[in-house]
Amino acid sequence: MVLVSGSGTNLQALIDATADPAYGAVIVAVGADRDGIAGLERAERAGLPSFVHRVKDFPDRADWDRALTGAVQGYEPDLVVTAGFMKILGPEFIAAFAGRIVNTHPALLPAFPGAHGVTDALAYGVKVTGCTVHLVDAGVDTGPIIAQGVVEVTDADHADGGDALHERIKTVERQLLVDVVGRLAREGHRIEDRKVRIPA
Ligand code: GRF
């Protein structure tokens, strides 16, 4: 199960990877918190079922959380991947899929959590940044780290507000996410003292 909010290039990388049966994972459905996004078009092109639950269509956040949880449970996924999903998941969702929600973040956590990881790192003046694939817990980008990839920051990155840097991060991020999801699907995982252990 993959949740998206935007262009869905991470979703596309997963769709492409699942074309090979040896990859070990299939995508059962794609969920979104908004419509009209490229991520949903990618799902449709791949023939995947999809649904949209917009927060504003529900009386409050708890109702949205309950509806999203129910919709995802209906597909009985082993893993939920939030790939550029720009909403904070609610407590019901996190309880339902505890330890099985995988998020990708465009910075080296625990530095620069939140929605502006790329530009916050750039503004801070770091020389390296990157991406983090981690399990989701109740905090914002605070769950156990599974894997990280490093990207160097150049002087030129300050000129365009971080767009080129984000593109370089996303190139690394897509590969890292594909690797991690495949390993989790094929080998399983357990969590020991915040360390994510993948057997093989
Ligand atoms: C990724 O860099 C993700 O980490 C961030 O937004 C980007 C989503 O890209 N939160 P895409 O929608 O997968 O192309």
Features:
single chain, 200 residues, alpha/beta, Rossmann fold, 2 domains, seven-stranded mixed sheet, two-stranded antiparallel ribbon, 6 helices, 35% helix, 20% strand, binds 5-O-phosphono-beta-D-ribofuranosylamine
Summarize the topology.
Elements: E1 2-4, H1 9-18, E2 30-32, H2 38-45, E3 50-52, H3 61-73, E4 80-82, H4 91-96, E5 101-105, H5 117-124, E6 128-135, E7 145-152, H6 163-187, E8 190-192, E9 195-197
Helix pairs in contact: 1-6
This protein binds 5-O-phosphono-beta-D-ribofuranosylamine.
What does this entry look like structurally?
By secondary structure, the chain is an alpha/beta fold. It is built from six helices and nine strands. The chain has helices at residues 9-18, 38-45, 61-73, 91-96, 117-124, 163-187, and strands at 2-4, 30-32, 50-52, 80-82, 101-105, 128-135, 145-152, 190-192, 195-197. The chain has a seven-stranded mixed beta sheet, sandwiched between helices. Strands 8-9 form a two-stranded antiparallel ribbon. Helix 1 runs parallel beside helix 6 (163-187). It is globular. The two termini are 23 Å apart. The model has no long low-confidence stretch (mean pLDDT 97). The structure holds 5-O-phosphono-beta-D-ribofuranosylamine. 5-O-phosphono-beta-D-ribofuranosylamine is lined by residues 4, 6-11, 39, 83-84, 104-106, 170, 173.
Gross morphology is: globular
Strand portion, in percent? Answer: 15-25%
CATH architecture heading of the largest domain: 3-Layer(aba) Sandwich
Summarize the amount of helix as a percent range: 25-40%
Order of strands across the main sheet: 3-2-1-4-5-6-7
Please trace the helix and strand order, writing H or E for each element: EHEHEHEHEHEEHEE
> Which structural class matches the secondary elements?
alpha/beta
Can you tell me the number of structural domains?
A: 2
- Radius of gyration, taken over Cα atoms and rounded to an integer in Å: 16 Å
Question: What name goes with the CATH superfamily of the largest domain?
Answer: Formyl transferase, N-terminal domain
What is the count of DSSP helices, taking H or I runs of 4+ residues?
A: 6
| Average pLDDT metric | 97
List segments where confidence is low: pLDDT < 50 over at least 5 consecutive residues.
Answer: none
| Topology-level CATH name of the largest domain | Rossmann fold
Bound small molecules, which ones?
5-O-phosphono-beta-D-ribofuranosylamine
Tell me the distance between the termini.
Answer: 23 Å
Number of strands: 9
How does the major sheet shape up?
Answer: 7 strands, mixed
